[in-house]
Specification:
The structure holds two protein chains of two kinds.
Chain A: H1 5-29, H2 34-39, H3 41-51, E1 67-70, H4 76-85, H5 125-138, E2 145-150, H6 158-168, E3 174-180, E4 183-184, E5 187-188, H7 189-193, H8 198-204, E6 208-212, H9 218-231, E7 238-243, H10 266-274
Helix pairs in contact in A: 1-3, 1-4, 1-10, 3-4, 3-9, 5-6
Chain B: E1 9-11, H1 12-26, E2 30-34, H2 38-41, H3 44-49, E3 54-56, H4 61-71, E4 77-83, H5 84-87, H6 92-101, E5 107-111, H7 129-134, E6 140-142, H8 147-158, E7 164-167, E8 172-174, E9 189-192, E10 197-201, H9 205-218, E11 223-227, E12 230-232, H10 236-246, E13 249-256, H11 261-272, E14 277-282, H12 292-298, H13 303-315
Parallel strand pairs in B: 2-3, 2-4, 4-5, 5-7, 6-7, 10-11, 10-13, 13-14
Antiparallel strand pairs in B: 1-8, 6-12, 9-11
Helix pairs in contact in B: 1-8, 4-6, 9-13
The chains are: A alpha/beta, B alpha/beta.
């Protein structure tokens, strides 16, 4: 697939707007998780606005279309912005994020159009995505299932049950992406609970593994997903280890775990928004 | 007292296996999952006929529950099978987030529930599962009483939209309900109409209640016996109608007295019609190794204890 510079630029503009949505939502709610959301924005923009084959509207069963499952549910402001900007619900819902009576709960729920599974309690999404991928096989549906996971989240043991299961059952219509930002609430992942050689671990579990060190570069992100797609259908599940920077796009948030779950104040919001061009119109 | 007889004893888990095998023939969306306990769950017949619709998950129950949740997306109806302990307590968070809160059509089928699991002892004898499951919004909780009822319930829940916890057991018990019964989720079954005391029972305790009813009859006490196979949603109407007549009630279950069927009934009575009530249940202790019959006696779940509880509760009537 040839991707023009113009198209990359358009996707980057979407990402800029999504990042604005993220910080504005978290600021308005005075709480939430901006760091990880900003870090994996480029991946979700690439998936929803370029890669995934999606049908108009929302049908829970999603037969005949690619599906996405978010395992690290705390990046909900990112997920909500992506879903809204790709047409699942009006942007006018975004001011309600984390507020009483809103569909946009702190963590994703199935009450939100576009969300097929609640997440927030970590470590369940890989198994869920595997189940959905098996369902596609039962239905002779050639579409793919994508999932996103935090790297710290891999400390939950269920991931490794799922990692064992998927190759055993030849779940080769699944692309699981690890958002490898090296940070978690209490500090650097390396210090809290080291993941060691993650590529070797997944390979030892018999997965196809691709590493992408430039997880905040739109062209690199698209190319790695296309590479992953080319590896599907060959009997093994596919894992992308995507190195990203927490807080990407806002200089004072970048690369630190401190913005994992903290909202910017008014002043910080103004500084952040000045770094992110408004491209699609604020909600 | 209506007479109940039986010609054979069978385990309720075999009723599940027979029901699942039937579903394998009739419902192409049913998919079975198991965590290394095919034989214990009696899933062999389904697997033999439908090898492609069986998913062996290995000893990894958390993954199994979430895979089941994912399978519903696309219209499959997953039936998970493992022991009750590993179907609930071990995987509570998976059920809570990915099945109950996400409103997924998963059928959690749990064998070896309660004290009658027997010799394996307290590590495996879960006595909290009804409480754990009934506290989840949207979860239906079913505990059938014999082989035939378990088979009928297994078949019925495939057509019942929403998450279901189906609880059954290991030991052989009398088969006394109709082989061709129609199972209606949430509808109590009147075992025997009476006027002096209401005895409501679930699971294996229904047969004990019938035996108790016969003994009470010999003492001149006319017991109304109701089978509550569906603990949630509870058939409130049937219970309130019965106590309106008898003015006292005994609840019987193979479960901790905290959080089970008895507590659901007590809550109903407190809000509607406060009549004396006694519990037949495990008295907030862990189980132990022994034969099912020995354990039922030791932990106060057999017919003799039900008779005593009935006499006591009648004595408490004003």
């Amino acid at each position: 697939m040839n991707i023009s510079d113009q198209e990359i630029k358009q996707l980057e503009e979407v990402a800029s707007q999504v990042r604005r949505d993220i910080v504005r939502m978290v600021h308005s709610a005075t709480c939430g998780h901006p760091g990880g959301s900003l870090g994996c924005t480029d991946y979700l923009v690439a998936l929803y606005f370029k890669i995934m084959n999606r049908k108009p509207g929302f049908d829970m069963d999603g037969i005949g279309e690619d599906l996405f499952f978010l395992s690290n549910g705390h990046v909900s402001p990112l997920f909500y912005s992506i879903l809204s900007r790709s047409g699942y619900f009006p942007t006018s819902e975004m001011p309600g994020f984390r507020k009483l009576g809103s569909i946009l709960q702190g963590h994703p729920t199935t009450h939100v159009p576009g969300v097929r599974m609640a997440s927030g309690s970590l470590g369940q999404g890989l198994s869920v995505a595997i189940g959905a991928a098996l369902s596609k096989k039962y239905n002779n549906d050639p579409s793919l299932v994508f999932s996103l996971h935090g790297d710290g989240e891999l400390q939950e043991g269920q991931n490794w049950e799922a990692a064992l299961f998927a190759p055993h059952h030849k779940v080769d219509n699944l692309i699981a992406c690890i958002d490898y930002n090296g940070q978690q609430i209490d500090g650097p992942t390396e210090k809290i609970m080291s993941l060691g050689n993650l590529k070797a671990k997944f390979e030892a579990f018999n997965w196809e593994v691709i590493e992408e060190p430039k997880g905040n570069d739109m062209r690199s992100v698209i190319e790695v997903i296309l590479k992953a797609k080319a590896l599907t259908g060959k009997g093994r599940p596919v894992c992308i280890i995507l190195t990203t920077q927490m807080g990407y796009g806002i200089d004072f948030m970048m690369g630190s775990h401190k913005w994992h779950g903290v909202a910017p104040n008014d002043e910080q919001l103004a500084v952040a928004l000045a770094q992110l061009p408004e491209t699609l119109g604020d909600y | 007292m209506k007479k109940y007889t039986f010609t054979e004893k069978k385990d309720t888990r075999s009723g599940f296996g027979a029901g699942l095998a039937e579903l394998g023939k009739t419902n192409p969306n049913v998919v079975a999952l198991c965590a290394d306990l095919i034989g214990s769950l009696k899933m062999d017949a389904f697997i033999k006929d439908n090898p492609d619709r069986f998913i062996q998950c290995g000893i990894a129950e958390a993954n199994m529950m979430s895979v089941a949740a994912g399978l519903t997306i696309g219209g499959k109806i997953p039936f998970t099978g493992t022991f009750a302990n590993f179907s609930t307590g071990r995987v509570y968070d998976q059920i809570r987030q990915s099945i109950a809160y996400s409103e997924k059509n998963v059928k959690i089928c749990a064998s070896h529930a309660g004290i009658t699991l027997g010799e394996d002892g307290a590590t495996h004898q879960i006595l909290e599962d009804i409480g754990l499951m009934k506290m989840l919004p949207g979860m239906t909780v079913i505990n059938p009483c014999d082989y035939n009822q378990t088979k009928a319930a297994t078949i019925a829940i495939a057509d019942y939209q929403g998450p279901v916890y189906l609880r059954f057991g290991r030991p052989v018990m009398p088969v006394f309900t109709d082989a061709d019964q129609k199972f209606e989720v949430g509808k109590a079954w009147m075992v025997n109409e009476g006027k002096d005391v209401t005895i409501v029972a679930t699971g294996h305790l229904v047969w004990e209640a019938i035996k108790a009813g016969e003994q009470l009859e010999a003492m001149g006490i006319d017991a109304e016996i109701i089978n509550i196979h569906t603990i949630k949603p509870l058939d409130s109407e049937a219970i309130l109608k019965s106590v309106a007549k008898t003015r006292c009630i005994v609840s019987c279950e193979e479960h901790n007295r905290l959080g089970g069927l008895g507590d659901s009934i007590a809550q109903l009575l407190i809000q509607n019609d406060l009549v004396p009530m006694e519990y037949i249940a495990i008295n907030d202790v862990f189980g132990e190794s022994g034969t099912p019959a020995e354990l039922m006696k030791k932990f106060g779940l057999d017919d003799l204890h039900i008779v005593e509880a009935a006499k006591k509760v009648i004595g408490r009537k004003g």
